[in-house]
Amino acid sequence: MSERVVPEPQRRRRRPTKQGVVLSQELIVDTALRLVGQHGAEALTVRRLGAALGADPSAVYRYFHSTDDLLLALAEELIARAQQGWEPTGDWRADLREIGLRIHAGYRSHPQAALLAAHRTTGRAHEIAAVEAILGILRTAGFPDPEAVRIYHAFVDQSLGFAVLDAAALALPAAAQSADLRVWQASYARLDAEAHPHIAATAHLLAADMGRSGYPFALDLLLDAAEARLAAARR
Amino acid sequence: MSERVVPEPQRRRRRPTKQGVVLSQELIVDTALRLVGQHGAEALTVRRLGAALGADPSAVYRYFHSTDDLLLALAEELIARAQQGWEPTGDWRADLREIGLRIHAGYRSHPQAALLAAHRTTGRAHEIAAVEAILGILRTAGFPDPEAVRIYHAFVDQSLGFAVLDAAALALPAAAQSADLRVWQASYARLDAEAHPHIAATAHLLAADMGRSGYPFALDLLLDAAEARLAAARR
DNA sequence: AGCGTACGACAGCGCAGTTGACGTAGTACA
DNA sequence: TGTACTACGTCAACTGCGCTGTCGTACGCT
Predict the structure, then answer these.
(1) Are B86 and B98 in contact (CB under 8 A)?
(2) Residue B132: count of CB within 10 angstroms of its CB
(3) Which domain holds residue A57?
């Protein structure tokens, strides 16, 4: 990973492409997010991005050194959108729940960005604001600092992790999903109750949950546990 | 996704490759796992796999129709390894914790397989055994069936999600990690305490946690919450 | 011994990310 | 207004990817 060669301050020369489009970092990021949203994560390639922009694919490299760089910019944009129009209510539990659902929903449609965001740091304004907001909620709620930091990490990574898994499921081609359903019915639903009593007893429940995201429930579990620890710390 | 064209029952003809290796599904799976373990998830390509096997890359397609198929086999193998040598102790909380750590550790070195395993179903023996074991622990602990299924999903997806994120971090080239560290120090550590009081107060704690997996802590939170719900259900 | 075929090798397709050279169009300054 | 500079869009090409169709051969069966 080299230094950022591409100048961050705004560019001065703007020449339209052959198709008359004036490029910019924002336009490229927006177009990339639109591509991913419409055609899935696998549709995001430099070549397709160039086509969608109406420019030569290599023009992208005038604004980002690599796709890694571009994905970091996508991550920052998603963080920004997740915070847009959000105001804390003062109820720490409700606030965290709302933020969690927003992060999850935002990244769900952009799994590659979620993978990066989880362990890279953009160091830019919106990311810093998000960290500050979440830590602020926890600390003003009364969590001691070490606990607040640990819960912060668990909270963020949980929402990103579920988003990545859910996004991967959504990105599967329809044929693969129906194939899995067939495999499932052939393998699980017909197991005999003697060898696999627990699966047999809950097969109908497992089937009902297939394809639904378990994130909201997992988030509630995390908030339950956090609340219990807060009560214990106050005692 | 077509039907499985490659015959599952064991093959009869075995001709060594030019380099004298006799191929088989097991050998290919083992070699693929070794490749991923040694050189990261990105090292797993059909061409490199062929080279590691001492065979032409296209020979792999005699045993799996696609990389998707191969990854499903890797997933099944990882599930098998995670269960190897494990015996339930009867303490549901300790048992779940042990299983969670095993799944996390296993998939952590094989993120692509984890991504697939989370929302595909292999329908094969070891996967079924794992589902049966986890559900069994929850149901004999006393969780009502619907709750047991929901906790099962949250538990599995949490461990897979963290494994994917952690694996992605491990797979980053060393240069990217040091670049991020520099960005972090430049952006976060020097924030003024007025604009970002919460980050400033916990900067040292955040730095100490960088790069460490938050999974064990998040797992404990989930188990805490489950235990509380079990107590409530019994009451 | 001989036949049928499973399987390994080879060549090649389309697509991916990325790079370096090139020329032009826009800006800045006189 | 003119001129020099250079940012930026384009082009062509390199490497490596998953995957396929074809071919010959050596294995295992009868």
Answers:
(1) yes
(2) 17
(3) 1-65
- Give chain A's end-to-end CA distance (angstroms, integer): 49
- B112 and B212 part of one domain: yes
Residue A21: nearest nucleotide (C-alpha to C1'):
D9
Q: Are residues A54 and A133 in the same domain?
A: no
- Chain A residue with Cα closest to B203: A149
Whether the beta carbon of B18 falls within 7 A of nucleic chain D: the reply is no
Residue with tokens 């899935």: A40
Show the CA angle centred on residue B149, arms to residues B144 and B154, nearest 5°: 125
Asked if residue A79 belongs to a domain, the reply is no
Whether A82 is in a domain gets the answer: no
List the 128-187 stretch of A: residues with Cβ below 8 A of B.
Answer: 128, 131-132, 135-136, 139, 145-146, 148-151, 153-154, 157-158, 160-162, 164-166, 168-169, 172-173, 175-176, 178-180, 183-184, 186-187
Asked whether strand D has any atom less than 7 Å from the CB of A47, the reply is: no
Considering only alpha carbons, which residue of chain A is nearest residue B147? A205
Give per-residue pLDDT as tens, B157-209.
999 899 888 877 776 666 666 777 777 777 777 778 888 999 988 888 887 77
Q: What are the tens digits of pLDDT across the range A53-89? A: 999 999 999 999 999 899 989 989 998 998 999 999 9
Tokens of B148: 């047991």
Residue A110 in any domain: the answer is yes
